[in-house]
C-alpha cells in the first residue's frame, strides 16, 4: 500500500481511539509535518469521515460524536494477518465445534476488501500448505462452554460441569478453574476438582454442560496452567511405565522426547565422573506402546541405560540387529 494511504489510515486509527488529538501530536505519531497532517485530514473528509476541527489552546482534531468506522478498513499487512490468523488457528485446532465461524469470518473479510488486495490474498490461501495434518474436528469444544469457562477463570468463579471420561464414564464435578490451555489440537482446563479433592485437567470437548456457581475463590500462587497440563499428560496412567538414564541435559533429551511425553530430571554428577563425559538425566515416561521408543532412543545418539521395563531391552536389541543386518547387506543383495 502506498505510504500516504497507509498514513491516512493510521491517522483514522488515531482519531478513532477517541479524544482530541493536536496537530503536533499527530505529526509526531505519523512522522510527517503539520501541513501534511492537515492534508490527510482533508482526505478523510473527502471520504465522508466526519473529522471535526477543535479550536483553542487545547484544540486539534477529533471524530464527530457517534461516528462509527465502516465495516472494515485494513492495510495489506493487516488483512493478511487477519486471514492467516483465521487459517492458522483452524489448522492448529484453535477453533470451536462451530468451525464454520472461521470460514464465514474469512468470507466477510474478503467481501469488503478491494479487488486488488482480495486477489493477492486469495493467491496466498490457494498456495499455502501445511506440514502438520488437519486437526480432528471431533475434539473441538463447544463455543458456549469455552466462553463460560474462560470467564470463570478470569473472574475466579467456581464451576459445575458434566464430564464424559475417555472410557465413557459420566460424572458431575465442581471445579475451581485455573486456566485454559490449547495443546496439540485439543483444549484443556486445569482446575482444582473439589469433587475429588485434587488438581486435575479436563478435555473441553468432553464437557457437555457448564454452570457458573455463585461466589469466588482465591487461586493458588505460582499458577502455571500450561506446565501443569504437560506434567499431567506425562504422568497419566498408561500401560507401560518406562524409566531410563540418558547421558545428556534436559534440553537435549526434550528435543526428541517432548515435555508432554517425558519427565526429565538432571542427575548430580558423581565426584569421580569424567567432566568431559557430560551430565546424565533420569527420564520417566508412561506409554501405551513401546515399539516406537527404540528408534527415538537411537535418534538421540546418546548413551542410555534401561531401568525398566525389561521388555524394552528386547525391542532395542531387535532394532540394533535389524540395523546391523541392513548395514551389512550389499547393494546387489536381492
Account of the 3D structure:
There is one protein chain. The protein has helices at 3-16, 23-30, 34-46, 76-91, 100-111, 115-127, 143-155, 225-234, 250-254, 293-300, 310-328; strands at residues 51-54, 60-63, 159-164, 170-183, 186-193, 198-203, 207-212, 240-247, 262-266, 280-287, 304-308. A hairpin with a 4-residue loop joins strand 5 (186-193) and strand 6 (198-203). The strands form 3 sheets. It has a 5-stranded antiparallel β-sheet. The protein is elongated and about 85 Å long. With 334 residues, the chain is of the alpha+beta class. The protein is 39% helix and 22% strand. 18% of the residues are buried. The model has no long low-confidence stretch (mean pLDDT 84). It is built from 11 helices and 11 strands.
Largest sheet: 5 strands, antiparallel
Strand order of the largest sheet: 6-5-4-3-7
Number of helices: 11
Radius of gyration: 29 Å
Q: Provide the β-strand percentage band.
A: 15-25%
Shape label:
elongated
Residue windows where pLDDT falls under 50 for at least 5 positions: none
Tell me roughly what share of residues is in helical segments: 25-40%
Total strands: the figure is 11
Given helix and strand content, the structural type is alpha+beta
Q: Please write the string of helix (H) and strand (E) elements.
A: HHHEEHHHHEEEEEHEHEEHEH
Amino acid at each position: 500500500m502506498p505510504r500516504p494511504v497507509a498514513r491516512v489510515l493510521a491517522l483514522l486509527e488515531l482519531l478513532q481511539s477517541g479524544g482530541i488529538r493536536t496537530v503536533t501530536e499527530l505529526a509526531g505519531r505519523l512522522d510527517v509535518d503539520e501541513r501534511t497532517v492537515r492534508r490527510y485530514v482533508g482526505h478523510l473528509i473527502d471520504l465522508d469521515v466526519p473529522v471535526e476541527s477543535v479550536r483553542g489552546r487545547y484544540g486539534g482534531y477529533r471524530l464527530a460524536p457517534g461516528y462509527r468506522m465502516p465495516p472494515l478498513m485494513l492495510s495489506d499487512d493487516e488483512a493478511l494477518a487477519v486471514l492467516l490468523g483465521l487459517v492458522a488457528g483452524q489448522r492448529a485446532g484453535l477453533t470451536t465445534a462451530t468451525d464454520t465461524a472461521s470460514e464465514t469470518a474469512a468470507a466477510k473479510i474478503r467481501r469488503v476488501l478491494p479487488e486488488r488486495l482480495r486477489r493477492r490474498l486469495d493467491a496466498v490461501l490457494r498456495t499455502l500448505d501445511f506440514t502438520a495434518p488437519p486437526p480432528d474436528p471431533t475434539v473441538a469444544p463447544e463455543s458456549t462452554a469455552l466462553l463460560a469457562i474462560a470467564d470463570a477463570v478470569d473472574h475466579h468463579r467456581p464451576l459445575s460441569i458434566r464430564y464424559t471420561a475417555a472410557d465413557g464414564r459420566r460424572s458431575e464435578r465442581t471445579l475451581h478453574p485455573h486456566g485454559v490451555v490449547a495443546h496439540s489440537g485439543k483444549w484443556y482446563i486445569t482446575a482444582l476438582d473439589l469433587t475429588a479433592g485434587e488438581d486435575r485437567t479436563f478435555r473441553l470437548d468432553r464437557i457437555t454442560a457448564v454452570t457458573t456457581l455463585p461466589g469466588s475463590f482465591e487461586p493458588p500462587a505460582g499458577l502455571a496452567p500450561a506446565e501443569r497440563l504437560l506434567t499431567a499428560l506425562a504422568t497419566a496412567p498408561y500401560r507401560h511405565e518406562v524409566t531410563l538414564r540418558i547421558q545428556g541435559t534436559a534440553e537435549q533429551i526434550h528435543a526428541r522426547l517432548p515435555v508432554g511425553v517425558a519427565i526429565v530430571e538432571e542427575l548430580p554428577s558423581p565426584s569421580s565422573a569424567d567432566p568431559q563425559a557430560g551430565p546424565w538425566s533420569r527420564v520417566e515416561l508412561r506409554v501405551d506402546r513401546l515399539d516406537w521408543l527404540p528408534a527415538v532412543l537411537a535418534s538421540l545418539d546418546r548413551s542410555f541405560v534401561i531401568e525398566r521395563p525389561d521388555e524394552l531391552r528386547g525391542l532395542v536389541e531387535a532394532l540394533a540387529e535389524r540395523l546391523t543386518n541392513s548395514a551389512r547387506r550389499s547393494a546387489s543383495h536381492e
